[in-house]
Each structure stands twice: as structure tokens, then as C-alpha cells.
Here is the input.
Amino acid sequence: MKKQLAAACVAALMTATYATADEGAKPKATLKGNMNVVYADKPAEVESLGAMFTEGMWYGRLRMNNFWWDNSVPAEGGVNNKATGIGGSVVYKTARFATLSATLGAYYSNGGLINKTDAADIGTIRAGKDVLSRYNVKYHDKYDMMVIGQASIDAQIAKTNVAVGRQIFESVFTASNDTKMIPNTFDGIVVENKDIAGTTLRAAHFVSQKLRDHTTGHDVITFSNGQDNWANNDDSAVHKGLSYANFTAAGKDTEHTLSILTAKSKIGEELTTEVSYLMLPEVLNSLVLEANYAIAAGDTKIIPGVRYYMQMDDGGGK
Here is the structure.
């Protein structure tokens, strides 16, 4: 009988705090239930280039994620799943000067300090695989990761913000999925506009992606690089038919871009609607329509919603 000994996940947010006479101490950043970080306290706008950096803010986290269960019964596979990541991150946000600001985030995870899986068995890790890079362990016997997870420059003009570089982008199609040690991020440009009251328009164009267990960017959709399945997009949700080998055999490019358009509107206090469109040229397109309605129930809210998802083939099916 399989004995599941432990499958624990801990993510601790450690931040400095600031205090005012009226409100007392407040955290500079907090975690939402989906593990997204909310920066409650941000740098202010300044009037000189030097102050842009001296008035910036640091945000720090210490993290540990542990996965361990015993599957040592031969009839059930005879392989244990164990992985523990210890590390954290430091994110620096500059103040805004002449419409410009910047964000830089360094992330570290070590999956070889305790509860270590031997390099020869590294492929047995399923849950918790994102606390290390299986590719780096396999080829370099390297269990730790130090990566630049965020590196972007923002330009804020009136109600339009343009962000260029490596960044987190949450949408119905993409997510930071930051439940382990390092977030999933994208390299490209994002434009956000709020000129229409109650409506946020966003347009994103990405040329590469960096998954949680990768130290470098890679293609947004292609599975494998023709030599190793862990060297390109090896996310658990990847479509393995959209592989390097299949694209190459069909005479297609193995490098792709990802574009996303979204329009989110709040109508009154209860209704929220969102339209999202995704384009992977010569692979597929997707359309999502969503509506959510908030119903007050005492001190809580019940929010029923409906989502329509249509995926359209643009050559990927072949």
C-alpha cells in the first residue's frame, strides 16, 4: 500500500514594513491566495535621475517548498518523489522619473541541500520539479538556480503604461504560476491603457518565455529542442505534438511569438466582463469571453461566472 508521508508547500513572504502615526505598521507587499504578490507600498515619483534610484524600494522573500512521499512498493512503481527547494528573491523597483521606472528581480532556489534526489533519478520528480532545473542537474550536476526573473523598463504617459523586458503577465492564457520558488515570466512588450472609464485594455507581444524551472528563456510553445525534452517548453501543460521534431518535419519554424489582447470592464458594482484573444501565428488562435456577477451574501460575496473558450487552428493541427 502506497504511503504518502508528506506533500507540503510553504511560501513565506518576508518584507520590510513602514509605519505612520495614524495607521501603524503595514507590509510593503502581500500575497494573494493565488500566490501573486501585491506591492502595497511603491516608490513615489521623483524629480531627478539620481533620486530615481536612491528613492527606489527593495522587496525580499524567503521561501521553502517541500515535496516528499514514499512510493517504495515495487508493485506501484518503486520510485519515491522527493524534492525540497530553499531560497528566495530580491526585487528592486526604482522611483518614477520623467515617466520612466524599472524593475529588477533576482531569484534563487537550491534543490540539493536536503531531501535530495540523485542525478540519475532526477526524472522521477513530478510534484516539486520546479524547485530545481532537471536539465541542469542532468547535464551539469547543478542543483541550484540563480536567475533574473524580472527585468523591465516602464513608461507611464497619462493613463497608458508601456513595459518592455522580462515580466510577469497574468491573463486567462498565461500566469506567473508562482507556487514554488521562481515565477513563470515572459520577454516582450506590454501596453496597458485605462482611458475608458471602468475599462482596462492590454496588448502584449512576447518573443520568449522562462518557465519556473529554467534558467534561460526559450520558445513560448515548442516542446523539446530536438535533443532533450527538458531544454525547451517542458511545462506539464505543454502539447507534446507541438514539438521541435514535428515543426521541423513539416518545414515550419521552431521559434514562435505570442500575442495577447484583452479588454476588461466593470459595469456597475456587480458585473465584470472580459474579452481575451490569443495569437500564435501559424499554430493557433484562441478567443475567450467571460462574465462574472457579484452577489452580496452578508459579509461575503458569491460570484457566479460563465466563460466561453474557442480555439481555432492556424496550422498547428497539421
